[in-house]
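User: Can you predict the 3D structure for this chain?
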Amino acid sequence: MTGQAAMTPAMMQASILERLTGETGDPAHLVETARSLCRRGCPPFAQALARELGAPVEVELGDVEIARMGEAVSERGANDALVLAASAASPDALVMRLDPDAVSLAVGVLFGADPDMPVAAIERDLSSTEIEVAAIVFDCLAKALDGSGERGLRIRFPLGAPVSGEEAAKVALRDGPAVRMTFSLFTPAGSGRLTLTMPQRLLLKPRGEGGVANEADRARQPEWANRFNSEIMRSVVRLEATIPMGTLTLSRIAGLAVGEVIPMPKTAATDTRLSARGKTLYSCEFGKLGENFTVRIREQQDSGRDLINSLAAG
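Assistant: Here is the predicted structure, written as structure tokens:
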């Protein structure tokens, strides 16, 4: 849980597109897709909780909103339980978080607490037993949303062990556009909250019959893909040409004054780097054409090739 899962070329491509464009889909479309997924998942989730915990737990879908993946960790409470679930398509397919009230509620149900007694607040680090019970809840939700065959999210089971407190703060999670869904868990003794965060790219991924996207969604997929790809190719990316200036002592740099001229080294002509968004695209030769300074592309860098191929593939 403290490190990122290995990324496939397809995952890297999605990550590059997110960094360049900032968003991956229409907000209204994404929210409705996420809401449909969760509505379908609520009944099997509640049934699984009742089976695993031994008593009914009511599940209700609350807010569904556009978010960032990083918020799944940064906005956690000190005593929340957190788990990161990977899928075949994404190392961070589901980020699930239980607040302390939900953990306490689930523990009470599992161990047969008096249903007329209110849920006891947890104001300390979670115990190993509470972490294990949180794992049961997370497993029930992940399996309820996963589906099967082509329609499934293809979540990788078993899930990792949940973490809390200082361990949760160590979770390395790449940021990017996401959708956040909130579930409320109820029993006569009280209620708690389960928060689920998913990357937008996973919700937009085309699926087989009965998958995340409904019939209307699937009918729009070719139109949406074409529009999204054309928008990417029209995106404006700032280019930067960097010329290495050699070395100077710290005392020499501290003594530089306005108007002072620093000569360029002889190797500058063939050692210029053309970059975009912090990624080197090409090695270039520095020159001049008429009154304008120029850079002539000499060689494409591996990172630049990956970036450009990712953009062209959409």
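The radius of gyration is 25 Å. The first helix runs from residue 9 to 21.
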